[in-house]
Amino acid sequence: MTKRFWMSILSFCLVVVLAACGQKAEAQPQPIDEKVDTCTQCHMAIKNNGYAAQYVTADGKALKFDDLGCLHKYESEHKEDKIAASFVQDSQSKEWLKLENASYVLASTVPTPMGYGVHAFKDTAASNAFVKEKGTGTVMSYTDLQKYDWKMDKGNMMPMEGMKHGQMKQNEAGQHHMQQGDMNMKTAHQ
């Protein structure tokens, strides 16, 4: 009986180890590097300001966005991407949240980087507090967000350090670059 007992224990351990080897690590958000990260959609610099978003593909590639609206626009234009997980920064704490777990506020008169007007929070209580503080906005769930008609309002874009939106100059190579400030950001010609 002792031999049978130990064989059962050994077999159980072997099954557990083999099962663990077959599991893939859960996709994790990648940190924002303000010196090099640009939005995959609009090619603007990404700030670690509580509005960044990203998704990680099944093969581990992180696509980063300066505004949640840019993520949704890009995702709708690239349906072939196999997304392992999507993340958004909490507008207050700047912590990464899974897109499906966050609570949202549509407050189109409160600026966001690209003027989409959607702000993310860790929970509904934080969303309600934001609406109360700002005196405007509608609390939305992840399901509501999927039905939202994403529209950019250029009048409610956050100003970038050292420049105003629209102040871009084209160089001889057809690339846009900042005219003012100490930023040396380039964007693809659109």
UniProtKB/TrEMBL annotation:
<feature type="region of interest" description="Disordered">
    <location>
        <begin position="167"/>
        <end position="190"/>
    </location>
</feature>
<dbReference type="Pfam" id="PF05573">
    <property type="entry name" value="NosL"/>
</dbReference>
<keyword id="KW-0732">Signal</keyword>
<dbReference type="InterPro" id="IPR008719">
    <property type="entry name" value="N2O_reductase_NosL"/>
</dbReference>
<feature type="compositionally biased region" description="Polar residues">
    <location>
        <begin position="168"/>
        <end position="182"/>
    </location>
</feature>
<protein>
    <submittedName>
        <fullName>NosL protein</fullName>
    </submittedName>
</protein>
<feature type="signal peptide">
    <location>
        <begin position="1"/>
        <end position="27"/>
    </location>
</feature>
